[in-house]
Amino acid sequence: MQLPVILAVSFESRTDKGTSMASIRELHRQLVNKERSAVEITQEALDRITQLEPKLKSFLCVTADQALAQARKVDAQIAAGEEIGLLAGIPIAVKDNMCTEGIPTTCASRILENFVPPYDATVVSKLAAAGAVMVGKANMDEFAMGSSTETSAYQVTANPWDLERVPGGSSGGSAAAVAGGECVVSLGSDTGGSIRQPASFCGLVGLKPTYGLVSRYGLVAYASSLDQIGPFGRNVEDTAILLRAIAGYDPKDSTSLNVPIPDYAQALRPSLRPKGQIRIGVIKETFGVGLDSAVKEAVTKAIEQFQQLGAEIQVISCPRFRYGLPTYYIIAPSEASANLARYDGVKYGFRSPDPDNLLDMYTKTRAQGFGAEVKRRIAIGTYVLSAGYYDAYYLKAQKVRTLIKEDFEKAFAQVDVLVCPTAPTTAFKAGEKIDDPLSMYLSDLMTIPVNLAGLPALSLPCGFDDRGLPVGIQLIANVLQESRLFQVAHAYEQSTTWHLHRPQLH
């Protein structure tokens, strides 16, 4: 089904009304000036969820009562004359692999079907402290393993631009909810591209921060050396505001970085001038075989636009970039096989009802509780960590990981930001790749090396293909250079109208 695009003209006429269209700053202005209440804004988001969920299936759990209670609290603060932060009263979705006290956290898996955490993840506590209104838990690929949100044990999320296509994964629910206007911003997690690829497929800005910038406490682990929580927004500023709210040191996370957190939104400027101040490197290895021609065209035009804005463009070689995929599919499953060993039916989650003995209970619980993709990755991980294969696979993969990092270090000695396509294609149809794991894994070809190196990277809308499906360009920066990413992305965004386009949903 071909969905038409609402162009910038009609967007402008709808900005003032409707949560689904307004930015964080615009909604904040409305709240402070008492043009609208937080309850009204929240109710509007909840009504839209009720209207669209039968089609989109973005959410596994909608927290309407809690959301309205949070909104009333914000309204009481405004009525009392208290100052509120930018995120106060803003409807937000949280991916269902982040713990939420008293609210189910399933990781879209049967094995955690009725699991209700006794505590909040650090990012969830931070959002609550900022006054953000959580409207629900977003659907995802089971345990964040997938690139299409089709491995969820509960439902398949649709792409708001074309309901027959996938929103990307594994944070597909978080992306679809923002693109469909069911909330203003959302949180996802990114282990190999799980924020940036859905952002590209759904026409959003999505950022994977520097490893350790955002606390992972309360994030259900998939691959601990790669996982990172990050924001989705419809524009760069919204994404920057959300990152600032969740970033920062957390003693509960041993990988957390103790560094000052800048006001990312303050650094935004509409230009990259004076000329040559920003050097952008184009990764030549990402423009080879397998790249969709429409994606190539849109990304090439975006690079030309960066040049017009004052950036100096040069072609950069990262020769080991292409080894990212095989390296990832050794390291990530290895870590997953260890992390997922805890789901055995003993302490929490699903337990097989009729086991003959303890060993049978373990076997049946895991066989019935995990889906096919999770089992596949656990099996791969267990195999490569076994005594005879550890050196041949795991150790070798870690060495290649170091070489990929070195490629990036050499590149950043010459340029400030690297660019390439976010994904090789636009959104594909649901069911198209589900029986072909290798084809599915290739969706993350461009995003994985960034996770292996622990770098920040952002996907930015840069056009559409001939079917009206969004295309994303990926910007990569050196460690803790998020401000620079936002600066470059914002300058491009302000000179184009891609971020103003909306899918037409009724």
Question: How is the topology of this model organized?
Answer:
Blueprint: E1 5-6, H1 8-14, H2 24-32, H3 38-56, E2 59-62, H4 64-79, E3 91-95, H5 122-129, E4 133-138, H6 172-179, E5 185-190, H7 196-202, E6 205-208, E7 228-233, H8 236-246, E8 279-283, H9 293-308, E9 312-316, H10 324-339, H11 358-369, H12 372-385, H13 390-412, E10 417-421, H14 437-441, H15 448-453, E11 457-464, E12 470-477, H16 482-494, E13 502-503
Parallel strand pairs: 3-4, 3-5, 8-9, 8-10
Antiparallel strand pairs: 1-13, 2-4, 5-7, 6-7, 6-11, 10-12, 11-12
Model description:
By secondary structure, the protein is α/β, with parallel strands linked by helices. It has a domain at 5-270 and 490-500: Alpha-Beta Complex (Amidase signature (AS) enzymes), CATH 3.90.1300.10. Helices cover 38% and strands 13% of the residues. It is built from 16 helices and 13 strands. It has helices spanning 8-14, 24-32, 38-56, 64-79, 122-129, 172-179, 196-202, 236-246, 293-308, 324-339, 358-369, 372-385, 390-412, 437-441, 448-453, 482-494, and strands spanning 5-6, 59-62, 91-95, 133-138, 185-190, 205-208, 228-233, 279-283, 312-316, 417-421, 457-464, 470-477, 502-503. Strands 2-4-3-5-7-6-11-12-10-8-9 form an eleven-stranded mixed sheet, sandwiched between helices. Strands 1-13 form a two-stranded antiparallel ribbon. Helix 10 (324-339) packs across helix 12 (372-385) and helix 10 crosses helix 13 (390-412). The model is unreliable at 1-19 (pLDDT under 50).
